[in-house]
Write a sequence for this structure.
C-alpha cells in the first residue's frame, strides 16, 4: 500500500510538472482568464457602481468575491480544453502504455487548474487593491477565503474534466463554463438579492454562488460569517464529490 501511494504521488507530481510547463510556456492563458474579470470589475466599479446601492462604502469591496468566482469559472474551461486535446492526440493512451498510475493523469490536470487559477486570483486581488479595495481580515480569515476558493476551483475543475472527456469538439469542451460564468450575475455578487423580483430572488438565494459569495465577503470584511460558510462548503464538497464520481466513470469509459 505504501509503495502504491508513493508511486501515485510521484506520477502525479510528474503529470503536474508537465501541465504546468504548458501553462508557463503559454502565459496568454492566465492573461486571458484575468483580463475579462478585471475589465468587468473596472466597468462595474467606475461606470455602474454609482447607480448600485449595496449599503457599503466601497463597491469594489462588495464586488470582489463575485469577480473572483467568475475568474475561476472562466479559468477551469482551459482544463477541459487541454484534456480534450490530450484525448484527440492520443497522449492519454500513450501515458497508459507506460507503468504509471492511471488516475495521476487526471490529477495532473486538476492540480494545474488549481495552481493557475490561484495565480489569476492573486493578480485580480492586486488590481482590486489599486482600485481601493481594503480588508481588515486577519490571516485566519484570509486562509479561510483561500480554502473556500480552492474547494470551489476543485469542484468546477472536476466538472471540466467530465466536459473534456465527453465533448466531441474543442468548442464543446469549453462551452460548459458559460452557464457557470453566468450564475454570479443571478446571485448576491453584484447587487443584494433583496432588490430582485421574487422569482429571481428565490433562485438567487438557493443556488451555490450566493452562499459562497456571502461567506467570502463576510470573511474579507471581518464580519460574522454565520451559516453561509457551512452552506458554501456543503455546496462545494457535494459538487466536487459528484463530479469526481462521474469524471472517473467517463475516464474509464474513454480510455
Amino acid at each position: 500500500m505504501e509503495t502504491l501511494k508513493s508511486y501515485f504521488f510521484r506520477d502525479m507530481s510528474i503529470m503536474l510538472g508537465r501541465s504546468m510547463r504548458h501553462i508557463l510556456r503559454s502565459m496568454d492563458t492566465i492573461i486571458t482568464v484575468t483580463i475579462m474579470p478585471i475589465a468587468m470589475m473596472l466597468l462595474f466599479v467606475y461606470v455602474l457602481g454609482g447607480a448600485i446601492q449595496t449599503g457599503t462604502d466601497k463597491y469594489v469591496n462588495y464586488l470582489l468575491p463575485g469577480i473572483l468566482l467568475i475568474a475561476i469559472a472562466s479559468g477551469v474551461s482551459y482544463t477541459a480544453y487541454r484534456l480534450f486535446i490530450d484525448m484527440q492526440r492520443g497522449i492519454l493512451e500513450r501515458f497508459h502504455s507506460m507503468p504509471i498510475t492511471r488516475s495521476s493523469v487526471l490529477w495532473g490536470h486538476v492540480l494545474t487548474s488549481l495552481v493557475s487559477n490561484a495565480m489569476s486570483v492573486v493578480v485580480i486581488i492586486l488590481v482590486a487593491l489599486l482600485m481601493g479595495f481594503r480588508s481588515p481580515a486577519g490571516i485566519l480569515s484570509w486562509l479561510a477565503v483561500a480554502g473556500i476558493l480552492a474547494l470551489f476551483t476543485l469542484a468546477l475543475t472536476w466538472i471540466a474534466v467530465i466536459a473534456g472527456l465527453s465533448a466531441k469538439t474543442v468548442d464543446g469542451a469549453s462551452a460548459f463554463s458559460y452557464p457557470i460564468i453566468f450564475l454570479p450575475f443571478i446571485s448576491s455578487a453584484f447587487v443584494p438579492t433583496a432588490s430582485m423580483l421574487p422569482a429571481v430572488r428565490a433562485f438567487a438565494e438557493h443556488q451555490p454562488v450566493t452562499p459562497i459569495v456571502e461567506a467570502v465577503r463576510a470573511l474579507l470584511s471581518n464580519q460574522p460569517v454565520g451559516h453561509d460558510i457551512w452552506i458554501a462548503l456543503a455546496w462545494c464538497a457535494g459538487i466536487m464529490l459528484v463530479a469526481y464520481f462521474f469524471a472517473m466513470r467517463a475516464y474509464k469509459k474513454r480510455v
About this structure: The radius of gyration is 19 Å. The chain has a mean pLDDT of 84. Residues 103-130 form the longest helix (28 residues).
